[in-house]
Design brief:
A hairpin with a 2-residue loop joins β5 and β6. Helices cover 10% and strands 60% of the residues. It has one domain.
């Protein structure tokens, strides 16, 4: 009896001292080998969510004005970051649930998750036309494609972990997926001194594909009728890991489409003391349509990696790169105090920086981690910064 009690105490101490799991196994930096860090002896179930929004064109004053339906102040000062770096926004989301069954050295990890990101990137050639200072008598023109990338999918799968390796099979269905062949933006500016005249034209179009009827998605979200099949492979230790995700075996079918088109025009003329300013802006949303010919949807391959250390000083770096050009990276440092851990994390993505404070606890039978994030377009958020937010949590319980 004493030996059993001693064994339980030793195992509990080992689990507390080795608890890390700052990098969530199913997050954007995910590697399923990391489920070993929840110290499952037989079976645990967990839930997770990780949502983050970054942008570089709306200051705090303009966000407050937008929420309060007040006038936005748009000039070279408030749009400084967008003028210098191009107009950018990045949204990333992961949420779902999983189970972890540990049997005879094999770990079986079935899961259900929503996963993906959305990025908006308009180069500074366009943002300069829209918000920068222009000279009389000059003409500027710019056309871009792929300015909007969105890849958010519903996933149902199972991974098997053995020692330092894992392989997963995944059914995926696109919730929103941008058709890059039909996505573009155009901006044109011209002016003259005599006669006094200026003209600005803007056009943009995006085509969004889905496997779901978005008007009734709450009743269809778990329907995998048009799903594709993908694999993911990974390697991981306590200190280093790498994984490749979204290796498509059979593409999913998109059966619905919605097209979004917008255009705007501003004309300024002056004749003597008569000044005329005309401005129009329109957004056209085509109704959600059923595709008689389904379209294949193949999400971009994703590569993740981490390098970390722990006990009692925790530190680490992690990164994720999608072959469509999106990316994320982060580094963290903190203290592992046994039952409790505290840490600070600095992240980067195409739209800016993310400052995160995190804490978690481990009671062997229950683990939890919470992260609170503030994003900004500047490394040190001072002056006219452009804020964003993020929140992430992980919880698992069992034996």
């Amino acid at each position: 009896m004493k030996n059993k009690i001693l064994t339980i105490i030793v195992l509990s101490l080992i689990s507390v001292l080795s608890f890390s799991m700052i990098i969530q196994p199913f997050s954007s930096y995910g590697n399923v080998v990391l489920v070993k860090e929840d110290m499952t002896a037989l079976l645990k179930v967990g839930a997770f969510a990780d949502i983050e929004l970054s942008q570089n064109f709306l200051t705090m004053d303009n966000l407050n004005a937008l929420l309060n339906e007040e006038e936005l102040i748009i000039n070279t000062e408030t749009m400084k970051s967008a003028i210098n770096n191009g107009l950018k926004a990045f949204f990333n989301a992961n949420a779902g649930t999983y189970a972890h069954l540990n049997l005879f050295g094999f770990r079986f990890v079935p899961y259900l998750r929503i996963d993906g990101n959305l990025s908006l990137s308009i180069p500074k050639t366009v943002s300069n036309i829209l918000f920068g200072e222009t000279n009389i008598g000059e003409t500027n023109e710019s056309t871009i494609t792929n300015f909007l990338k969105t890849n958010i999918t519903m996933n149902l799968g199972n991974s098997i972990v053995f020692e330092k390796f894992y392989v997963g099979v995944n059914l995926y269905s696109p919730i929103v997926f941008s058709d890059q062949n039909s996505t573009y933006a155009y901006a044109y500016y011209t002016s003259s001194a005599s006669p006094s005249y200026a003209e600005l034209n803007i056009q943009a179009q995006a085509r969004i594909l889905s496997s779901y009827n978005l008007n009734n998605i709450e009743n269809e979200i778990f329907n995998f009728q048009n799903s594709g099949i993908s694999l993911e492979l990974g390697f991981g230790t306590d200190n280093f890991g790498i994984a490749v995700r979204n290796i498509t075996i059979s593409p999913a079918k998109a059966t619905y489409v919605i097209a979004i088109r917008s255009d705007g025009k501003v004309n300024y003329t002056a004749e003597g003391t008569n000044l005329t300013l005309d401005a129009t802006y329109n957004i056209y949303n085509s109704p959600l349509s059923y595709l008689t010919e389904p379209v294949n949807v193949i999400p971009p391959i994703q590569i993740t990696g981490y390098f970390k250390g722990q006990n009692p000083l925790m530190w680490g770096v992690a990164g994720s790169y999608w072959l469509d050009g999106n990316w994320m990276a982060k580094g963290y440092a903190g203290f592992n105090l046994g039952l409790l851990k505290l840490y600070y994390m600095l992240g980067m993505n195409p739209a800016g920086y993310a400052h995160t404070i995190g804490f978690g606890f481990n009671l062997f039978f229950a683990n939890a981690d919470l992260k609170l994030t503030a994003t900004t377009d500047q490394f040190i958020p001072i002056g006219q910064t452009t804020p964003g937010i993020g929140i992430a949590f992980t919880f698992s319980g069992g034996l």
